[in-house]
# Entry
Amino acid sequence: MTRTQDLASRVGASARRSGLTVGTAESLTGGTVATALAAAPQASEWFQGSVVAYSPRVKQDVLGVTPGPVLTERCALEMARGAARLLEVDAAVSATGVGGPDPEEGEPPGTVWVAVVAPAGETCHRLALRGSPAEVVELAAEHALELLLGSLAVEDGFSEE
# Structure
C-alpha cells in the first residue's frame, strides 16, 4: 500500500466515524487526491466528488476563485470553499501549485498551497517540495491528504498520531 493509499484509507475511516462528507478541488494534483479517496474502503459513504480545475479560468468560473494569481493561499482557500459549496460536502481539500520544470507566477517549481475547509475551521499550508513534476504531484497529494486527515481527526476526536 502506498503512502497516498494509506492516508486515503485513514481519511475514510475518520470521515465515517465523524459522519462527514468529503470532496476535493485540485489543480496541480490533477485528480490524484480524488483518485486515492475514491479507491479507499467504503468511499461511496463519505466521498462525494472532485473538481479538477487546472486552468485559472476554470478556477474562477467554476470554483469562484478571485481573478489574479493562482499560486497563493487565497486561491487555495477559495478553491476549497468552492468545492465545499458545489459538492455540498462538510470538508473539502484543495491543492494548487507549480509542478515544474519551469517557474510560474514568479514561484519556483515545487511551490504548492494545500488548504482544507472543514467544520473544525480552515487551514492552509505553503509547501516547498523537491523532485520531478510527477514527484511534486505525488508529494502534494500526500500533504493534502495529511492536512485533510488532521482536520477530520479533530472532528471525530480521534488522534491520528
Summary: The mean pLDDT is 95. The domain at 3-156 is CATH 3.90.950.20 (Maf protein). DSSP finds five helices and five strands in the chain.
